[in-house]
Design a protein that fits this description.
The chain is of the alpha+beta class. Among the domains are: about 170 residues, no CATH class; about 90 residues, Sandwich (Maltose phosphorylase, domain 3); about 80 residues, no CATH class. It has 17 helices and 22 strands. A hairpin with a 2-residue loop joins strand 16 and strand 17. Helix 6 packs antiparallel against helix 7. The longest helix has 19 residues. The two termini are about 45 Å apart.
């Protein structure tokens, strides 16, 4: 396979908003009592259940997310070498394991809301505790609950509907997402039963439309259908059938091109839309514009699979959009279980709010999202290192038996300057590659050790610097960042968002509609910032969406 991630090993975040988001998310989950996580499981199993259970969606067993919490803690612990967090995840798994019944029944209650959903998330959590924390008992529990699932899960595979409740019919909600983690279980164990069970849940009716060039996505549930494409990706990983690669490459192209706002977000009111102007129309009234943590998680996985399979850089563009405008713009996860569920892009303006119920589905994808910052910045092949995202960080790459440290220092996207310092143990030749964003209009300027370097490049591709590297060599990049107006869809060419590079800017506070918006009117409030102001009265500010805090008014889309 052309490219590999570092799989949460060897990448360290330096101080930035992303490192702070990882830190606060870790603390939110770590500080919750173990008894609260386990309360319902213990009650159902007839075991002593001290403490108080979690409330909101979690307490009612709707979209039970325990498996995702195990997964998120395992991934953050692996990425940051956090032993206390790893021990907490392992303890929770073992205590939960005591509540599994003799026949393998493992759910939070006697009547879970969605059997398939909870099973799939639990499989993912057990996979992660085994793969990232090395706890072999995870496979024992995985074997037991899968035997129950093989015997008991509804095989009807109902067709998800285009109207509420979107994807749910009976007990078989989101059955079409099961394949990914079951295929992962097969790779981890070699047990054919996981491979066979995964193949049962292929979503051919949806996938084949992309392969045939006739996609039909209108009003299907957005996050879970994009998430299902990761199962198609794993089907390709396991079988090598070109059909599945065609599915995910065509799907990524179609969804990113026809379903996305300038942020990279998609699915207003959690529904994909026909290409008749429905996307732009939704901005007039639908406040739940993008299911932010869940939608970001689905795209992070899909684009990373595609980079892994194809080696192509341009898949990093969608990943980058959601790094800044999706999960990177979410309010901090709180220990109370409150999380940022939906972003609101309406043309009337909005404020950022926490979801009104605690522990919703997006509290499960949130910790997995922020852990993925470690997995998305750098990629590697046997012979080369690839810088995919421009985030303050370090990576240690073992190349031909020696460790090479690359340190990335940058204030991107506030400005376009990126410095990469290469420190091998001894001089070594290899290509150091970086992604040229698809939106750049001018070449990226490159210097090596202060001297201008001529590097072939084109937007949406890798640029490569091959040389013999010695300790202290520096590569300096200057990525051109320009203001742009991005229409929401072809039917609404004058309904636009303002971007600068990968970042969406919003009008901060209340004020006029800016129906005459002209890029020439906007000047940097201060040099080297992403704050802009226009010389009108009253003065209007444009700031990055990720800077908007709780209860602050903003406006993202403008009608010219």
């Amino acid at each position: 396979m052309p490219l590999e991630s570092f799989n949460y090993t060897g990448v360290r975040l330096l101080e930035s908003m992303f490192k702070e988001q990882v830190r606060s998310t870790r603390d939110a989950f770590f500080n919750v009592s173990n008894d609260s996580y386990l309360f319902g499981f213990r009650q159902r199993a007839g075991l002593p259940a001290p403490g108080v259970g979690l409330d909101g969606w979690y307490g009612s067993d709707t979209f039970h997310t325990f498996g995702q919490y195990m997964a998120g803690m395992a991934r953050i612990a692996k990425a940051t070498n956090d032993k206390p967090l790893a021990n907490k995840a392992i303890f929770l798994m073992h205590e939960w394991g005591k509540t599994i019944e003799h026949d393998g029944y493992f759910y939070y209650s006697r009547k879970p809301n969605f059997y398939h959903y909870s099973y799939e998330k639990t499989v993912g959590g057990l996979n992660d505790i085994y793969e990232y924390l090395g706890e072999k008992d995870a496979l024992v529990y995985l074997d037991r609950i899968t035997d129950w699932a093989i015997k008991n899960l509804d095989r009807s595979r109902p067709t998800p509907g285009p109207t509420p409740p979107f994807q749910y019919t009976g007990d078989a909600g989101e059955w079409y997402t099961l394949g990914e983690n079951l295929y992962r279980a097969y790779l981890l164990t070699g047990d054919e039963k996981y491979k066979k069970f995964a193949a049962l849940w292929h979503y051919d009716k949806f996938w084949d439309g992309f392969a045939d060039g006739k996609p039909n996505v209108s009003y299907l549930h957005a996050y879970s259908h994009v998430n299902s494409l990761s199962s198609a990706a794993m089907a390709y990983e396991i079988t090598g059938e070109p059909h599945y690669l065609k599915v995910i490459t065509n799907a990524q192209d179609y969804i990113h091109r026809t379903q996305c706002f300038a942020t990279g977000g998609y699915g207003p009111s959690e529904r994909l839309r026909p290409t008749d102007g429905a996307l732009g129309k939704a901005l007039e009234s639908e406040d739940a514009t993008f299911e932010t943590p869940c939608g970001s998680w689905a795209v992070f996985k899909l684009t990373r699979y595609l980079q892994h399979f194809t080696g192509e850089a341009h898949y990093g563009d969608w990943m980058e959009q959601l790094t800044y405008n999706g999960i990177g713009s979410a309010l901090p996860m709180l220990a109370s279980g409150q999380t940022f569920y939906d972003s609101d892009y309406r043309t009337c303006g909005s404020i950022k709010l926490y979801f009104h119920l605690h522990w919703p589905c997006c509290s499960g994808t949130y910790p997995q999202d922020v852990a993925d910052y470690h997995n998305n910045i750098y990629l590697k092949s046997p012979e080369a290192l690839y810088v995919n995202l421009f985030i303050p960080s370090e990576v240690t790459w073992n190349h031909r038996g020696q460790d090479i440290l690359i340190r990335q220092e940058t204030s991107y996207p506030v400005d376009g300057y990126v410095t990469l310092t290469v420190t091998p143990e001894r001089a070594v030749e290899f290509p150091l590659n970086f992604r040229v964003p698809g939106w750049v209009k001018e070449p990226v300027a490159v210097k090596v050790n202060g001297a201008v370097e001529s590097v072939a490049m084109q937007p949406g591709a890798w640029a490569s610097i091959r040389r013999s590297w010695k300790a202290g060599d520096k590569v300096e990049l200057q990525i051109p960042l320009e203001l742009a107006l991005v229409p929401v869809d072809p039917q609404h060419p004058k309904r636009v968002a303002v971007t600068r590079g990968p970042v969406v800017l919003v009008r901060k506070g209340q004020g006029p509609a800016l129906d005459h918006l002209a890029l020439s009117d906007w000047k940097e409030t201060r040099k080297g910032s992403l704050d802009f102001s226009a010389s009108v009265q009253p003065i209007i500010q444009l700031v990055p969406f990720y800077q908007i805090t709780k209860d602050t008014a903003y406006l993202m889309y403008f009608d010219l």
